[in-house]
């Protein structure tokens, strides 16, 4: 019998977990011919999340859990799930019921019977999402896609099911600062897309603050492309050309006006501020990459497990 592992990253989801468990087990119970593993990854929650998961585990042997020593982020939680799952197929689903579990049977059929490697959901609307978040996220994908070769689908969600080959491919990527959406698109494979209407969060609130999202976006861009590193090169060339033209203009003006050059102090200050800004920005970009190299070289574990019932 083939096995499906459903990986659920959870961070302070105590309010919604009981409803989630009811809904997902209804769907999982209806899957005939498959064995199932429901793998909760508790990403350092400070509420009752861990106790609730353990209470599921005592009455349902399909329930497995990995509990982190602190909050390592959703990316680390998804990685831990993939590293510890035992299924022939593995899927991610959010704990907040924004991803409707009803789609699982269809997605499973796509990878098991229809020959796809991945069945993934694509958001068709942004209902239940803050306007500012939609706006910023649109901008982010536009930037990423205009400076990288691989296309990251704007609406692509983490809600997906993949086969063993894809799981192992993702696990073969060892980098520390992980941007899963980029990794999904980088590994490729034959993907069937399912249109998916975002539901409202069933309970609790989003774990993504604007600052967290901004950090995520920077991680995404830096981790995914080295194009920004060329920024100093391009602006340097432009600045040199501009400087050269300006010199010629100055010389001509000097000749025409008979040698007396009235240089506006304001113009000088302006130039200093602009060039200073460009230099700082360039150093900043290089610094971002340097810090990523530093993190990778240290080679720290991507997460630490405090408690688990996974045997692997
Ligand atoms: N999550 C996590 N670690 C974090 C933040 C979020 O494991 O540091 C989980 C969270 O419990 C949920 C999923 O990731 O199951 C999506 O988070 P959320 O619903 O807060 O994000 P949104 O849907 O608002 O993008
Ligand atoms: Mg959510």
Describe it for me?
The protein is of the alpha/beta class and 312 residues long. It folds into two domains: 2-225 and 302-308, Alpha-Beta Complex (Spore Coat Polysaccharide Biosynthesis Protein SpsA, Chain A), CATH 3.90.550.10; 227-298. 49% of the residues lie in helices and 17% in strands. The chain is built from ten helices and eight strands. The protein has helices at 17-29, 49-59, 74-84, 104-112, 131-147, 164-171, 180-187, 210-224, 231-256, 265-298; strands spanning 2-10, 34-42, 63-68, 89-92, 118-123, 156-163, 191-196, 305-308. The protein has an eight-stranded mixed beta sheet, with helices on both faces. Helix 5 (131-147) packs parallel to helix 8 (210-224) and helix 9 packs antiparallel against helix 10. The radius of gyration is 25 Å and the shape is elongated. The protein starts with a strand and ends with a strand. The protein binds uridine-5'-diphosphate and magnesium ion. Residues 9-11, 13, 43, 71, 73-74, 77, 94-96, 98, 206-208 line the site of uridine-5'-diphosphate (UDP). Uridine-5'-diphosphate binds at residues 9-11, 13, 43, 71, 73-74, 77, 94-96, 98, 206-208.
Short description:
By secondary structure, this protein is an alpha/beta fold.
Give the SSE map.
Layout lengths: L1 E9 L6 H13 L4 E9 L6 H11 L3 E6 L5 H11 L4 E4 L11 H9 L5 E6 L7 H17 L8 E8 H8 L8 H8 L3 E6 L13 H15 L6 H26 L8 H34 L6 E4 L4
Parallel strand pairs: 1-2, 1-4, 2-3, 5-7
Antiparallel strand pairs: 3-8, 4-6, 5-6
Helix pairs in contact: 5-8, 9-10
The site of uridine-5'-diphosphate (UDP) has 16 residues, from strand 1 and helix 3.
